[in-house]
Each structure stands twice: as structure tokens, then as C-alpha cells.
Amino acid sequence: MFSAMNSGFTAFISLGAPAMMFFIITLLSLLFRVKLSKALEGGILIALALTGMGAVITLLTGAFAPALTQFVKSTGVSLSIADLGWAPLAVITWGSMYTLYFAAVCILLNVILLSLNKVKTLNVDLFNIWNLSVIGLLTLYYSESNLVLTTCVVGAVYILMLINSDVMQPQIKALLKYDRSSITTTAHPSLLICPPVLAINELISRFIPFIDKYDFDAEKLNQKIGFWGSKFAIGVYLGFFVGLLGRLPVSELFSLAFTAGISLELFGTVGNWFGPAIKPLSDGIASMMEKRMKGRQIFVAIDWPILASRAELWAVANILAPVLLVIAILLPGNKVLPLGGILLTVLAPALLIITQGKVIRMTLIGTVLIPLFLWAATLIAEFVTKTSIAMHSFPQGMAQDRLFSSVDSDPLEKMLSMLIAKASITLNPQMLLLAAVATVAYLGLFAWYFKRMKKINAARFSATPVADGPQN
Fold first, then answer.
1. Contact, 403 vs 382, CB < 8 A?
2. Distance CA 341, CA 339 (A)
3. Chain-centre distance of CA 389, in angstroms?
4. DSSP 8-state secondary structure symbol assigned to residue 226
5. 111-to-24, 94, 102, 122, 301 alpha-carbon distances in Å
6. 38-55, pLDDT tens digit by residue?
């Protein structure tokens, strides 16, 4: 019996991530009483998104692989790990059955905490569960498949996400000029960087508050930048930069630049398919929960692009792109060359919410925190590469001995999960002590952050209409 089940499971996995997720998303949607046509639409879209993302990754890596080799040889800078943005992590995680397990754990936790009135957020942004799955898979990988420990790590991080969504909701309403009755929020995992952002913001308020006098209109800045700050333009600059340092012939230089430009643009286009693919399933779960929680105030958490209407977010993302590249070259311990993640949309939303759109503060804080993202990307490169090979999703055109990674969200959580997992295996006293101290410090930072945010919310919004915005 077990042999037959194992054979069936192996055959299912061998279909590949797109086909596998087509069946899973379609069947899950039907289970939550989604119409057949919508369930099929979601299943097909997720399959197309995974297929398309794999094709774009192959295009980018095939173009950059020789240029990166020459870049390292000609400059001596050992940025030997290619950053392919968030796409490889999404492909790996959505191709893993563990992602569905982590999703089930998170949904159950959300239901329990809502039922006990411990949180107000109902997180319907199921697609971004892959961010948590990365943390879970890292823990599994380095703890030699300790599922109990992994479940605890994923569960703890998810609880912090939900509480964070609750405390950010008033800030989001102020930023977007929402009505007081609005229930919209976001629980995106990238916003777990908010505690260190707030800590640095508090230091700025204490020691250099005068910088706010020199803040400027981000809308006007974006208008002046125009297409020069678009994704495809930044990709072209990056391609030229790497090609010049790699001393490529002129014909190859232009080819690399234009390939980089279209790749960055396609990452955004194909990436936008994932949300609609998961939406029917998310709507089915939300509908079921709303029926069971009548009479309760519930915040509905969706993806972070609800903040994309704020010009400050894109202005700072454009400002930080060259800063990221310079820091990557100079930062000790970093081996990642930013490519797919050159636009720091994994950091900019947190900067926007905490500073309430102050561009100079956002830029300063972002610059201070960039090293965390580069170090985390360097540390997870081995895991990303080996897992990609094991799941037959290794980018074509890239040498099998070359590592690749992702400058993506949750750097603290990734590093902490790896530390905890390794300590659980080695049982080395020093490693165990370091893991314990790091965990206490991490949770202590969140405890301070939640307490401080509640005070900020009370002070800013208790007597002032939301439409007037936050008080300085």
C-alpha cells in the first residue's frame, strides 16, 4: 500500500511544478466552493505564471552567465552569485508540497487567533505564503528535515505577521486617505522588516529631526525621472554596467543590456499573474470565514501593492537601486551581484509605512538596512541552488557549479531560521546559546515594536480624522 502511495506521489511530483500546481489550486478552490470555471482559471493562471517565470529566469541567466564570469575575472570583485530576484524562490516553493502544508498551518493559526480575538486580521493573500515557505524550507534543509521545529518557526513568524498587520492598519489608512471604517490592510512578509525600520526612524527623530525640513515632493521627482527610472531602463543600465566591467564586445554589450531590460520588465508582468491565480481560492476562504465571524471587526489583508499609489515608494526604490549596487561591491561578506532584485520593493513598503512617506528618512533607513538583504542572499545561495537542481528548475544556460540567489524579503527571519536549524543539529553549546540569544533579541525587538506602534497609533489617530493624515 505504502509502495503504491509513494509511486503515485512520485509520479505526481514528476509532472513538474506548473502541472502539479494546476491540479492542486483547482481542486483546493473547488473544495472551498469556488465555481468550476473560476477554479480552472486560477489553476491555469498559476501554471502559466510558473512556466513564464521559469522562461524569464532562463533568459536572464543565459545572458548574464558569461558576462558575470568575465566581470569577476576583470574586476577581481567576487560577486560570483547571481541575484535573480524573487522569482526563483517562488518557483521552488510553489513546486514543493511543503508549501501547501505551511499554508494549512497558517490558515489554521489565523482561524484560531481570530476565534480567540487575539488578532483582527484575516490574511487572504495566500499567494505570498511562498515567502514563509522559504523560511520553512530553509529550516527543514539545515535541520535535516525536523518538521516539528520547522512548523514552530513558520507558525511563530506567521503570528508576528498577523499582529504586525493589525498595528499597521491605522498607518495604512492614513497614508492612503482611507475612511475610518476601512478594513483594508496588508500582512505581506516583507513588512516584517518594520521593527528595525522603526528603531532607526526613532533614532533619526531623536538626533537629526531637522532633516525633515529638507524633504521634497516625490511625485514631482518621479515626473522628472520619467522613463529613466522604469524597470526596463534600470535593467538596461545594469546590463551595460556589467558588460562594460566584463569587457564584452560591443555587439554582446548591447544584447546583454536589452536582455536585462526586457527581463526586469517581464518579471513584473509575469509576477502580476500570480495574484489573480490565487484570488478565487482566497475569495472562497474569505467568504467562508466572514460567515463564521459575523458581528466582529475584521481587517482583510491583501498584497502590498495597495501602497503602490504613493509616489514616495517608487521614488525611493529608484534612489536605492544604485545605492544597492555600490554597497554590493563594497560590502564585506557579500558575494551577490544584484540583478532581479535591484529595485528594492521588498524594503520600500516598510519604509513608506513607518516614516509616513518622508523620502529622506526612507532613503537613509534603506541605505542602513541594505546589507541585511545582501548578507541573507549570500547565505541562502547554496540552499536555493541545490534545491533548484533537485526540483529540476535550475536555470538553463547557467553553469551547474555556479550559485544563484535572491535579494528578497525577510533577511532577519532567513538568517535566524538557519541559525536555529543548525544549532538543533550540532547541539554545540556555543551555537545553542547564540541561537537562544538571537531568538530572544528578535522577539524582544518585535515586542518593543508592537508596544511602540500602539502608542504611535493612539497619539496620531485618536483625535485626528484620518483624512488629515498623521501628526508630526
1. yes
2. 6
3. 22
4. G
5. 22, 23, 14, 8, 14
6. 888 888 887 887 677 667
Global pTM value: 0.78
Q: Torsions phi, psi of 82, nearest 5?
A: -85, 130
Work out the angle between the directed axes of helices 429-461 and 411-426 (0-180°, nearest 10). 150
Query: Could you please report the per-residue DSSP string of 248-272?
Result: --HHHHHHHHHHHHHHHHHHHHHHT
pLDDT > 90: percent of the chain:
35
Indicate the residue type of 147: L
As separate numbers, helices (DSSP H) first and strands (DSSP E) second, the chain gives 18, 6
Q: What share of the chain is helix, strand, coil (3-state, %, to 5)?
A: 75, 5, 25
Return the H-helix or E-strand segment holding 365.
helix 359-379
Q: Where are the domains of the chain?
A: 19-460
Joined together, the cell numbers standing for residue 135 give 523560511
Those residues with Cβ within 8 angstroms of residue 405's Cβ, 6 or more apart along the chain or in another chain = 81, 82, 83, 84, 88, 336, 377, 378, 380, 381, 384, 385
CA 357, 360, 363, 367 dihedral sign is: negative
Phi, psi of 194 (to 5 degrees): -55, -40
Alpha-carbon distance 191 to 348, whole Å? Answer: 9
Where is 29: in which H helix or E strand? helix 17-31
Kindly tell me if the per-residue pLDDT of 190 is higher than 80. Answer: yes
What backbone torsions phi and psi does residue 350 show, to the nearest 5 degrees? -65, -40
State how far the Cα of 324 lies from the Cα of 316, in Å rounded to an integer.
12
The three-point CA angle 32-134-372 to 5° equals: 135
Kindly report the CA angle at 133 between 380 and 337, in degrees rounded to 5? 30
Strands of the sheet containing 81-83, edge to edge, are 336-337, 81-83, 404-405
What DSSP designation does 394 have?
P
pLDDT in tens, 267-286: 667 766 766 776 777 677 66
